[in-house]
Amino acid sequence: MSTLHVLSHSPFGDDRLNSCLRLIGANDALLLTGDAVYALQPATAPFNALSARAPTLYVLAEDAQARALDIPADARAIDYPAFVELSLHYDKVNSWL
Amino acid sequence: MPKSLLIVSRQAPWSGPSAREALDIVLAGGAFDLPIGLLFLDDGVFQLASKQDAKALQQKDLSANLQALPMFGVDELFVCGDSAAERGLAPSSLALEEVQALNAAEITALIDRYDQVITL
């Protein structure tokens, strides 16, 4: 079974991203929304951890745009309709509340 | 067959309502005979510290509720071994005897095995 992990908290001063990267499976994907997109800030510990683990990565485009963050080439920028499609594509969604 | 549900509890017991709410979901699920599991992750492992005493805080700790889990038919109880070790909690010292320590790969497999997962 596959899981879409959804993060929405800033990775600075919070260990959701690290724990998620530790547990994410080969068939799983990670979606960054809200302040979680700050993980894309280059040359930071969260960005390096993300790059090292290199999960299948989706980013909610409007949240990255609002925060002036570039979306890496190996990530897919999505909008809300695509978010809904992703949620249905994966067997389950794990929102790290 | 009802869908199986894994609750991931990752907040310390005194940092807000999350820990109690996660436990309430598990107890409610257990009361309705849902196949339900509970994983303590990150600061959530502090819920399992022995000898918590919140009398001076005028609050009740979660220990009694945790002990009730097997009575509610919830015996799928897991703790992230790394989270516990990082926080200086030995698996043998935890308040809940039935809890099983898992490594990262085992937790990946655990999440995979359940139909739905709620992380609080």
Walk me through what this model shows.
The complex is a heterodimer of chains A (97) and B (120). Chain A is of the alpha/beta class and 97 residues long. Chain A has helices spanning 16-23, 45-53, 61-66, 80-89; strands at residues 3-7, 29-32, 56-60, 75-78, 92-95. Chain A has one domain (3-95): Hypothetical Protein Ychn, Chain: A (3-Layer(aba) Sandwich). Chain A has a five-stranded parallel β-sheet with strand order 4-3-2-1-5. In chain A, β2, α2 and β3 form a beta-alpha-beta unit. The longest helix of chain A has 10 residues, at 80-89. Chain A is globular and about 35 Å long. Chain B has one domain: Hypothetical Protein Ychn, Chain: A, CATH 3.40.1260. A five-stranded parallel β-sheet of chain B has the order 4-3-2-1-5.
Secondary structure layout plus pairing:
The complex is a heterodimer of chains A (about 100) and B (about 120).
Chain A: E1 3-7, H1 16-23, E2 29-32, H2 45-53, E3 56-60, H3 61-66, E4 75-78, H4 80-89, E5 92-95
Parallel strand pairs in A: 1-2, 1-5, 2-3, 3-4
Helix pairs in contact in A: 1-2
Chain B: E1 5-9, H1 18-31, E2 36-40, H2 63-67, E3 76-80, H3 81-86, E4 100-102, H4 104-113, E5 116-119
Parallel strand pairs in B: 1-2, 1-5, 2-3, 3-4
